[in-house]
C-alpha cells in the first residue's frame, strides 16, 4: 500500500448511488453499524405494519426469526402498493424498496392514507432492503398476490403476480440483515420480546405473535396483547403496591412550533399510578419508544414538579419552611406512560429516540397540569397518600445528600447502616462469623433475593446501574462521590485501604471490624451482569485488597438454563451441563427455559440455585501467585492505559470471541 495521498481536487468528490448510500454508511440511517443499527432496521419494517393496523387494517402482526437470522413480518392490512405509479412514472415496488425518500406518509396533514404514522421519511423500507443479504416482499390485495425479490440491495426479479382469495390481504416481508453492512446481525431474543411488548402496550387491541428459533433448534413462542393498553400495563407493573388506580387521560390539540408554520394535530394519551415499590417512566410518540424522551420528558418534569409542590404546600399539615421537591422525589414512586401522536413530528434523527417539537412540550405541560389539578380535587385521600410518599422520598434524599457530604470528610464505621444506607436489607444476626452479604444487580434482583434468603444471616445490598470504575479515577475524593461505592463501604464496615495524600481523612482499614464472613457478588449471567461483576471486583481490588487475599469475596454462579421434565426442574450452569442433563433424561419430554435474569426468578429457584448454602454454587476469588501480572491485567483492561489495552486485545482477544456470545 502506497503512503502517498491523492490530490484533493474537482475529481475527488464522489456521489454514492443506489444501495451504496446505505451499505457504505449504515449508521447515518440506522444510528449504528452494529447490533443497535441492525435492530433498528427490523423496527423500520415492523413500524409499517403497525401503521396499517392503527389505521384499522388488520388486528394481528406475526414476527418470525429463524436460527440463521432470517426474519419475517406479516400483517393483514391493505397490502403494500406494488403496481405502476402514473404520477412518478415508476413501479411503486421500486419506489418503496429502491428509492430513498419515497413513501405514502408525506401528506398525513392533508387527509392522506395515514393520519399518525411511525413511518415518516420514506427511508425505512428502502434502507432495510439496501442493508439486507436478501429480501422477499409479498403483497395481497383485491384478489392479486404480487411479489418481488431483492439481493444485496438490488432487485433480482420483476414484479410477479398470481391470483389469491379476495379476502386475503396484507404484506409479508422476509429478509436477512447483511453482515457486510452490519458488524453484528445476531439480534437477541430479548430485543424482539421487549419491542413487541412495547408495541402491544401502546396499540391497545393489536396482537403481536413472536416465533423465535434458538441456535439449538428449539423454538420460543409468545403473544403480546393489552386490551386496555397503557392502563393494563401500569396495573401489571404496580400490582398491589398502587397508591391510586391508573386511569387513561386523553386530549387532542392543534398548534404550531413557530408562528409562520402551519397548525398540526396532536393527540395525547397518558396514565399514571404512584407505588410504594415500583417506578417506571416510558414515553412513546406515534408508537415509537422515546428512549431519550425530549418534549414529553420536559413536559412531565415541569408539570409534575410544579403541580405536586403546590399541592403539598397547600396541605393542612404542611411544613411551610419545607424546601421545594424535585422530580427525583416524584419519579422514585411514579409509574407513568405517555403515548402521544402527531401529524407532524420533529425527531432528533431517523432512529426516533426523542422528539423536539416546542408545541408538543407546551401542550403536554398544560394538559398534564390541568389533569393533575383535577385529580387532586377528585381524589383527596389518594392525593394525600401520594404527597406523603413524595415527602418521604424528598426527606430521604436530603438525608442521603447530607450524609454523603459527611462521608466525603470521613468514612466512619460506627454508623447504623440499617438506617443510613438506602435499600440495604439487613439480617437479624450480628455475628460476623456467620453473616453473609449479597451484592446484587438492581432492585428487581434484590426483591427476588430478599424473598429467597435466610433472613437470619443473609443480608442484601443492591447496586444501581454500573458501578464506578475505581481504576479510572484520579483521586480518592472522586471515587467517594459515587453513592454506590460509599454505601457499599459503609455496609462492609472495615474502612478503606488507601495510601498517599488524603489517607488521613478516612477511617483506616481494620479487618476486625468486617461485618461479614462472606461477601457474595450476585449478578445476571449476561454481558451487563459480567460487566457489573468486574467493576465490583475492581472496587475490592483497589480499595479493599486484603478481603480478596483473605478469601472473603465470592461470586454466586447463576444457572443459564432451567430444564423441566415431569414437573421436576434441573439447572444447568453452562452448555456442557445442559447436554449432560438432556442425555440423562433420555427420551423423556422436557422444556428448556433460558435464564431471564435474577429479577424474574421465583423465590424457590433463587433459594435452590443461588442462596441456600446446601445447594448453591459459589466461586471464591483468590489472589494470583503472580501479583505483578494481576496488576498489569487490571490496569491494562480497566485502567486509563489505552495503548496497553489495545495491544493486549490485539494479541489475546481471539481467545475470548466464543465467550462473547454467552
What is shown here, in short?
By secondary structure, the chain is α+β, with helices and mostly antiparallel strands. It is 35% helix and 21% strand. β10 (207-213) and β11 (219-224) form a beta hairpin.
Description:
The protein has 21 helices and 26 strands. α4 packs across α5 (124-130) and α13 packs across α19. Residues 408-415 and 652-662 have low confidence and may be disordered.
Shape: globular
What's the helical proportion of residues? Answer: 25-40%
Give the total of beta strands: 26
Q: Look at the structure and give the mean pLDDT.
A: 85
**Rg over alpha carbons:** 28 Å
What fraction of residues sit in β-strands? Answer: 15-25%
Low-confidence stretches: 408-415, 652-662
* Distance separating the two termini: 38 Å
The major beta sheet can be summarized as:
9 strands, mixed
Category from helices, strands and their pairing: alpha+beta
Task: Annotate the secondary structure layout.
Blueprint: H1 20-23, H2 26-30, H3 35-54, E1 60-65, E2 71-75, E3 84-85, E4 90-91, H4 92-98, H5 124-130, E5 132-141, E6 144-151, E7 154-155, E8 160-163, E9 170-177, H6 189-202, E10 207-213, E11 219-224, H7 230-238, E12 249-255, E13 264-274, E14 280-285, E15 288-289, E16 293-294, H8 295-313, H9 327-331, E17 334-342, E18 354-355, H10 358-378, H11 380-409, H12 417-420, E19 436-441, H13 442-452, E20 458-463, H14 476-479, H15 483-492, E21 518-522, H16 527-543, H17 545-549, E22 553-556, E23 561-565, E24 568-572, H18 575-585, E25 591-594, H19 603-611, E26 618-620, H20 627-638, H21 642-652
Parallel strand pairs: 1-10, 14-17, 16-18, 19-20, 19-21, 21-22
Antiparallel strand pairs: 1-2, 2-9, 3-4, 5-6, 5-9, 6-7, 6-8, 10-11, 12-13, 13-17, 14-15, 22-26, 23-24, 23-25
Amino acid at each position: 500500500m502506497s503512503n502517498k495521498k491523492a490530490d484533493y481536487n474537482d475529481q475527488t468528490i464522489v456521489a454514492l448511488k443506489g444501495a451504496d448510500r446505505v451499505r457504505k454508511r449504515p449508521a447515518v440511517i440506522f444510528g449504528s453499524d452494529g447490533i443497535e443499527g441492525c435492530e433498528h432496521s427490523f423496527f423500520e419494517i415492523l413500524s409499517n405494519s403497525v401503521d396499517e393496523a392503527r389505521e384499522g387494517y388488520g388486528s394481528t402482526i406475526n414476527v418470525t426469526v429463524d436460527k440463521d437470522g432470517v426474519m419475517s413480518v406479516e400483517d393483514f392490512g391493505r397490502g403494500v402498493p406494488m403496481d405502476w405509479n402514473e404520477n412518478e412514472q415508476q413501479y411503486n415496488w421500486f419506489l418503496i424498496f429502491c428509492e430513498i425518500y419515497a413513501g405514502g406518509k408525506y401528506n398525513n396533514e392533508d387527509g392522506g392514507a395515514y393520519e399518525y404514522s411511525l413511518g415518516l421519511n420514506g427511508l425505512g423500507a428502502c434502507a432495510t432492503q439496501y442493508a439486507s443479504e436478501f429480501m422477499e416482499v409479498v403483497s395481497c390485495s383485491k384478489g392479486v398476490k404480487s411479489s418481488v425479490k431483492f439481493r444485496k440491495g438490488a432487485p433480482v426479479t420483476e414484479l410477479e403476480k398470481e391470483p389469491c382469495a379476495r379476502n386475503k390481504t396484507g404484506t409479508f416481508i422476509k429478509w436477512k440483515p447483511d453482515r457486510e453492512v452490519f458488524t453484528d446481525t445476531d439480534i437477541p431474543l430479548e430485543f424482539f420480546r421487549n419491542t413487541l411488548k412495547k408495541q402491544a402496550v401502546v396499540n391497545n387491541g393489536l396482537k403481536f405473535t413472536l416465533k423465535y428459533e434458538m441456535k439449538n433448534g428449539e423454538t420460543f413462542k409468545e403473544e403480546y396483547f393489552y386490551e386496555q393498553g397503557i392502563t393494563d400495563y401500569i396495573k401489571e407493573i404496580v400490582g398491589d403496591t398502587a397508591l391510586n388506580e391508573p386511569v387513561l387521560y386523553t386530549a387532542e390539540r392543534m398548534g404550531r412550533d413557530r408562528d409562520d408554520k402551519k397548525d398540526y394535530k396532536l393527540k395525547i394519551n397518558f396514565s399514571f399510578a404512584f407505588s410504594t415499590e415500583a417506578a417506571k417512566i416510558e414515553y412513546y410518540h406515534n408508537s415509537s419508544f422515546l428512549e431519550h424522551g425530549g418534549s414529553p420528558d420536559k413536559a412531565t418534569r415541569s408539570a409534575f414538579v410544579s403541580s405536586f409542590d403546590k399541592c403539598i404546600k397547600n396541605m393542612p399539615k404542611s411544613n411551610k419552611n419545607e424546601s421545594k421537591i424535585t422530580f427525583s422525589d416524584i419519579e422514585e414512586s411514579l409509574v407513568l406512560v405517555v403515548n402521544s401522536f402527531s401529524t407532524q413530528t420533529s425527531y432528533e434523527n431517523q432512529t426516533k429516540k426523542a422528539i423536539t417539537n416546542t408545541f408538543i412540550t407546551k401542550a403536554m405541560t398544560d394538559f398534564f397540569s390541568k389533569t393533575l389539578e383535577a385529580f387532586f380535587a377528585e381524589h383527596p385521600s389518594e392525593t394525600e397518600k401520594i404527597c406523603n410518599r413524595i415527602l418521604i422520598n424528598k426527606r430521604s434524599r436530603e438525608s442521603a445528600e447530607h450524609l454523603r457530604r459527611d462521608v466525603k470528610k470521613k468514612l466512619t464505621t460506627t454508623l447504623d447502616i440499617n438506617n443510613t444506607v438506602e435499600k440495604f436489607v439487613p439480617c437479624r444476626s450480628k455475628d460476623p462469623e456467620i453473616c453473609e452479604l449479597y451484592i446484587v444487580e438492581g432492585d428487581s434482583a434484590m426483591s427476588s433475593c430478599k424473598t429467597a434468603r435466610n433472613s437470619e444471616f443473609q443480608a442484601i445490598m443492591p447496586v444501581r446501574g454500573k458501578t464506578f470504575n475505581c481504576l479510572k479515577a484520579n483521586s480518592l475524593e472522586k471515587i467517594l462521590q459515587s453513592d454506590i461505592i460509599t454505601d457499599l463501604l459503609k455496609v462492609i464496615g472495615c474502612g478503606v485501604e488507601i495510601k498517599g495524600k488524603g489517607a488521613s481523612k478516612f477511617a483506616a482499614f481494620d479487618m476486625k471490624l468486617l461485618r461479614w464472613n462472606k461477601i457474595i457478588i450476585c449478578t445476571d449471567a449476561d454481558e451487563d451482569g459480567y460487566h457489573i461483576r468486574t467493576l465490583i471486583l475492581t472496587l475490592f481490588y483497589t480499595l479493599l485488597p486484603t478481603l480478596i487475599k483473605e478469601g472473603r469475596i465470592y461470586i454466586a454462579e447463576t444457572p443459564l438454563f432451567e430444564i423441566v421434565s415431569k414437573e421436576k426442574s434441573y439447572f444447568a450452569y453452562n452448555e456442557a451441563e445442559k447436554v449432560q442433563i438432556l442425555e440423562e433424561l433420555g427420551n423423556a419430554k422436557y422444556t428448556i427455559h433460558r435464564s431471564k435474569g435474577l429479577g424474574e426468578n421465583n423465590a424457590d429457584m433463587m433459594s435452590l440455585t443461588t442462596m441456600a448454602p446446601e445447594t448453591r454454587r459459589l466461586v471464591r476469588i483468590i489472589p494470583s501467585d503472580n501479583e505483578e501480572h494481576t496488576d498489569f491485567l487490571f490496569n491494562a483492561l480497566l485502567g486509563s492505559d489505552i495503548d496497553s489495552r489495545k495491544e493486549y486485545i490485539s494479541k489475546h482477544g481471539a481467545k475470548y470471541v466464543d465467550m462473547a456470545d454467552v
